[in-house]
Inverse folding.
């Protein structure tokens, strides 16, 4: 943890995590989110790229697959709500949910390599959120 992070109050940590998760929800919620992530050229590909996911073998969605345009924003919004409401204990629960999201991102990177810059940015932001 850096010197600046040690000086943060618990409320500031929660707010920062919440902002990151809400930003990620916005990035993955539609074509304009790709521009928000700095990759507006991917906006045209969003409808078909985010339409279907086969589901990761280690997750419950494997049986039915998923719809990333619904699943990802919803997961990030849930994480944002969790970050807003809680402190240390919730962070450990959030860490488990982020691990699941990492599995999703791994699968999506294999399935939809054209969105690799967005997947990498998402991973980086998740790591940043976990540092608070």
């Amino acid at each position: 943890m850096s010197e600046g992070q040690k000086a943060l109050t618990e409320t500031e940590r929660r707010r920062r995590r919440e902002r990151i998760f809400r930003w990620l929800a916005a990035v993955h919620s539609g074509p304009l989110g790709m521009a928000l992530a700095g990759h507006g050229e991917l906006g045209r590909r969003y409808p078909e790229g985010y339409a279907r996911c086969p589901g990761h073998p280690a997750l419950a969605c494997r049986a039915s697959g998923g719809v990333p345009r619904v699943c990802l924003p919803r997961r990030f919004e849930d994480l944002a709500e969790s970050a807003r409401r809680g402190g240390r204990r919730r962070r450990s629960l959030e860490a488990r949910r982020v691990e699941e999201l990492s599995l999703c991102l791994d699968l999506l990177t294999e399935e939809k390599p054209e969105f690799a810059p967005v997947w990498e940015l998402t991973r980086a932001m998740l790591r940043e959120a976990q540092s608070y």
